[in-house]
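User: Here's a structure from my thesis project, written as structure tokens. My advisor, Dr. K., wants to see whether a designed sequence matches the one we expressed. Can you design one independently, without my sequence as a hint?
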């Protein structure tokens, strides 16, 4: 099993920045892809950014140029640097990792990000 703990959410004014972290623990040797999703009230959960074990990243169009995803060398922690935040970025942000050996996805509990105008 893999456990994920997110941190770094909070309240920020529009134009501000936040950095989210997601630390994986447990049986983590087979984790490959890691990513961040978000879900705003009344909306479906959507992909924000993802990064492969080789470091290739992808972003939702709405966050390109403002958000940066990264992971540490041990590949057990994934980060999301969020700059130039907008009120529409307000959502619960979830970390997700893929275990290639077990072919399973694991989700964190989420962290709230609120951007005030």
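Assistant: Designed independently from the structure alone:
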């Amino acid at each position: 099993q893999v456990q994920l703990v997110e941190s770094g959410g909070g309240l920020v004014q529009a134009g501000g920045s936040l950095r989210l972290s997601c630390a994986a623990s447990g049986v983590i040797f087979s984790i490959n892809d890691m990513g961040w999703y978000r879900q705003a009230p009344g909306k479906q959960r959507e992909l924000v950014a993802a990064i492969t074990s080789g470091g290739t990243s992808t972003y939702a169009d709405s966050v390109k140029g403002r958000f940066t995803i990264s992971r540490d060398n041990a590949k057990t922690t994934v980060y999301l640097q969020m700059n130039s935040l907008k009120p529409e970025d307000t959502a619960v942000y979830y970390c997700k990792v893929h275990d290639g050996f077990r072919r399973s996805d694991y989700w964190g509990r989420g962290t709230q990000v609120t951007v005030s105008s």
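When you compare it with your expressed construct, this may help: The mean pLDDT is 94.
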